[in-house]
Amino acid sequence: MVRSPHEHITIRDIWEARNRIKPFVRKTPLIPSTGLKEHTSSQIHLKLENLQKTHTFKIRGAANKILSLSEKQKELGVTTFSTGNHGLAVAFVAKELGIRAVICVSRKVPTAKIESIRKLGAEILFCGNSQDDAESMCYHLQDEKGMTVVKPFDDPFVIAGQGTIGLEIMEQLPRVDTVMIPLSGGGLLSGVALALKTNDPNIRVIGVSMETSPVMYKSLKAGKPVVLEEQETLADSLLGGIGQNNRYTFQMVQKYADDVILIPEKDIARGIAYMLREHRFIVEGAAATSIGALLDYRFNHEFQEAVALITGRNVDLDVILDIAHSHL
């Protein structure tokens, strides 16, 4: 990406990201879900980013950002604030490139994600009880140590990296008419929607979030970024604010999201149980939001060929065991 970061992100940036990150990512499978087809009377396909390296889509954006840095920036190291998955992705890429990484997390990040980050050799700093607390520490490290902050979502390189999923979907299912995307800070939806709608503006993009602390949803309703107190949810990867000074994703989600759906915790649990029972996949709560929405059919329109993004599988085993016990 050679243009100024103040300019709009384009499909060219996503193609450049695809070439840049190719050694670091997998082209993940797109599979049909027979059970969801029977339930909805539509063809439902699952984009399995749970099979991605680090078991989450986040490596796409993290790799694109870190690989774009100068040698001097790499020498000084990188830092990020994360609900877990983005930190895991940054730690993985940093280890591959021999770069120092400091991951700032709140004390609400699940143990499974913390241990995975630690195993990759990254330094972990616990910072308060919210994503905002972790973010503040990152910028302190930037000011004091000269480290580069790899933002989880509101960065053009990160958005372009996530957008490579959209290119893969178009290759794997050219007739796709609807894509359901877990929605938090909006980096994933922004990039994927840009890739999809550049190819076909009629493709519908649906954001799906939890009823608990849905910051982007509330921000869209308010017409500006808002702050919400974080609350416990199975979709912990979707927690965190979008930033009062959000520069990219808020406007992109406003532009590209055809609808945003909220689902309760019980439907997230149903989605996790469905993926375990029908597809034998362990997925985290955020990844199950679209499945939960489909099982309860919370959509305002019909579709023929839909894709649900299964975004990750980094979840504490106790959560899976509890859901398996109560739902299977």
TrEMBL record:
- UniProt entry keywords in alphabetical sequence: Lyase, Pyridoxal phosphate
Name the InterPro entries on file: Ser/Thr_Dehydratase, TrpB-like_PALP, TrpB-like_PALP_sf
Catalytic activity line of the entry: L-threonine = 2-oxobutanoate + NH4(+)
Q: Name one GO biological process term.
A: L-serine catabolic process
Q: Which Gene3D superfamilies match?
A: 3.40.50.1100
**Per UniProt, what is one GO molecular function of this protein?**
threonine deaminase activity
Start and end residues of each Tryptophan synthase beta chain-like PALP domain: 22-312
The Swiss-Prot or TrEMBL record lists the needed cofactor(s) as: pyridoxal 5'-phosphate
**Which EC numbers does the record give?**
4.3.1.19
Q: What is this protein's function per UniProt?
A: Catalyzes the anaerobic formation of alpha-ketobutyrate and ammonia from threonine in a two-step reaction. The first step involved a dehydration of threonine and a production of enamine intermediates (aminocrotonate), which tautomerizes to its imine form (iminobutyrate). Both intermediates are unstable and short-lived. The second step is the nonenzymatic hydrolysis of the enamine/imine intermediates to form 2-ketobutyrate and free ammonia. In the low water environment of the cell, the second step is accelerated by RidA.
Into which family does the record put it?
Belongs to the serine/threonine dehydratase family.
Q: Which PANTHER family match?
A: L-THREONINE DEHYDRATASE CATABOLIC TDCB, THREONINE DEHYDRATASE, MITOCHONDRIAL-RELATED
For this protein, the record's NCBIfam families field holds: PRK07476.1
**What is the protein name stated in its UniProt record?**
threonine ammonia-lyase
What organism is listed for this UniProt entry? Melghiribacillus thermohalophilus
